[in-house]
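Comment thread on ticket #2218

A.B. wrote:
> Attaching the input chain for the structure job we discussed in standup.
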Amino acid sequence: MVTLGSSGLVNQVMSGFVLTYSRAIRLGDFVRIGDVEGTITQIGMLSTKLKTLRAEEVTIPNTVVVSQTTTDYSRFPDAVLTATSVTVGYAVPWRQVHALLQMAAERTPGIRKDPPPRVLQAGLEDVRVNYTLIFCLDQQEARTRTVSVLHAHILDLFNEYGVQIVTPNYEADPPDPKIVAKTDWYASPAHPEKRGE
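C.D. wrote:
> Ran it. Output below, let me know if you need it in another format.
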């Protein structure tokens, strides 16, 4: 038992050395390790601590850190691209979808103007086109909030222009587009002054 326990401890310590001297991650970096995303607050001999976007402290054993894929969003912050996708039916002109997604990006604080956001047709599927908006963020740590605000702008703009976003369970064209009329955007209990931005 002592031998097995000490070999596990040696693995942890060696993994700590690997992290320290390889400089794969650094204090203050915003990273994703496995399925955990957060800011590194401590790199110890046995474990690494992250503070998540929900202000949770997560402790990950160094052997796990070394064995997992780690994405460091802080290393090249100006080059890290973020993406979000929508699917729209073939009856909607692709240029209109491009314009709407770019308008949504322009209205969203925290999305960089340079490089400019761009839209790709990521897939021509059975009954819909998959459009992907690619953009850079001012702050990687604010990703969740920024993308949430972007999604709100996308929903508002697509509703305003009568463009229906098609879900993965889409089966057929409905008689009327499934959109929310602008007059109903703030239906009770929502309030115009609380826009979620």
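A.B. wrote:
> Thanks. Noting for the ticket: The two ends are 56 Å apart (CA to CA).
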